[in-house]
Amino acid sequence: AAGDESAAVRLAALLVMRRAKDGGIAKFLDDKATGVVEEAARAINDELIEGAVPALAAAIKKEKLTRPVWLRAINANLRLGGAEQAKAVAAFAAEEGNSEDGRAEALWALANWAKPPVRDRVMGLIRPIPERSNEVAKKVAEPIVGNLAEAGPTKVRLRAAELIEKLDVD
């Protein structure tokens, strides 16, 4: 059913996979229907389908993401917390074609990379993430944050200033 021409059939398959917490749900992140992609992102993040979180994190590199997708992709990258994920979040924040809100959210994630809040930013549920070194976030933020603080849109400038202060970026 995942390959069916009907978006409704694909969505039904996705919902069954969501209930089963099947990591194969990640294939729907590449669906041609925006609604199916959004629902896949919701399923992976909201149900915390661990096997599909890396695919959701990688989705941040795609163009023209909608709010439900970029919000959850940033959250997935923060949850995974590696250098590659931090680099992807920084690239998303630096990309002028992305929404102002999305770029600001990406900068917030980098500022909180070392000590993420216990409460999940998207769902509001208690989902602790272990603390880690802020050097990873600082390293990827340094090349972009100065320009964003000076020339970015208002929300981006504010988040960039917070990041500079929190991570002690020169």
What are the key terms here?
mainly alpha
Task: Describe how the helices and strands are arranged.
Blueprint: H1 7-20, H2 34-46, H3 53-58, H4 67-80, H5 83-94, H6 100-111, H7 135-151, H8 154-167
Helix pairs in contact: 1-2, 2-4, 4-5, 4-6, 5-6, 5-7, 6-8, 7-8
Radius of gyration using CA atoms only: 16 Å
Structural class: mainly alpha
Low-confidence parts lasting 5 or more residues at pLDDT below 50?
none
The secondary-structure element order is HHHHHHHH
- Terminal residue distance: 52 Å
Describe the structure.
The chain contains 8 helices and no strands. By secondary structure, it is an all-alpha fold. Helix 7 runs antiparallel to helix 8 (154-167). The protein is globular, with a radius of gyration of 16 Å. The protein starts with 6 loop residues before the first helix and ends with a helix. The mean pLDDT is 96.
Explain briefly what this protein structure is.
The protein has 170 residues and is mainly alpha-helical. The protein has 8 helices and no strands.
